[in-house]
Amino acid sequence: MTGGAGFIGSNLTLALQEKFPEARLTVIDDFRSGNFKNLAGYRGDFVAQNLATLDWREKFGDPAAAGFDAIFHLASITDTTLHDQFVQVHDNVESFRRVLNFARPTGTRVIYASSASTYGAITAPSVESNGAAPANIYSFSKVIMDNIAM
């Protein structure tokens, strides 16, 4: 679970732990926006790491031997007021790319959270075919990640 100390990631982690008590869970987070308190009661492994620089093979070994059933990728810099556009796009997109590159050889499922913000300020009703219209750098990074996921 990347971003496992964030609001959504921690709640999903704790729900998975409760529903699948025998599952081996690993949370990866760098605490940029997450908090250790969100993981109160968590019993799995934890990796404190910036995902944009994480070498998945070095950390977890060969993807086939790592034994991941799925990778939930929820980590991202979400601050829409961040002024360093390079850092936000680089870290968000490169993190996603590294997850995919690790998962691809074994067909490990990657469950990734996009964002409604990729469609920009819209009026209802709206349809997905209207296309992306990111209003900020966070949304732009999510559009790029959506493109990579296709």
What report would you give on this structure?
The chain has five helices and four strands. The longest helix is centred in the middle third of the chain and has 19 residues. β3, α4 and β4 form a beta-alpha-beta unit. It is an alpha/beta fold and 150 residues long. It has a single domain, classed as NAD(P)-binding Rossmann-like Domain (Rossmann fold). A two-stranded parallel sheet has the order 1-2. Strands 3-4 form a two-stranded parallel sheet. The model has no long low-confidence stretch (mean pLDDT 92). The protein is globular, with a radius of gyration of 16 Å. 36% of the residues lie in helices and 11% in strands.
CATH class: Alpha Beta
- Taken in chain order, the helices and strands follow as HEEHHEHEH
How would you sum up the global shape? globular
CATH homologous superfamily name?
NAD(P)-binding Rossmann-like Domain
Supply Rg: 16 Å
**CATH topology term:** Rossmann fold
Largest sheet: 2 strands, parallel
Give the name of the CATH architecture: 3-Layer(aba) Sandwich
Number of strands: 4
Q: Can you tell me the number of structural domains?
A: 1
Strand content: 5-15%
Strand pairing plus helix content: what structural class?
Answer: alpha/beta
Low-confidence stretches: none
- The residue fraction in helices comes out at 25-40%
Number of helical stretches of at least 4 residues: 5
Terminus-to-terminus distance: 21 Å
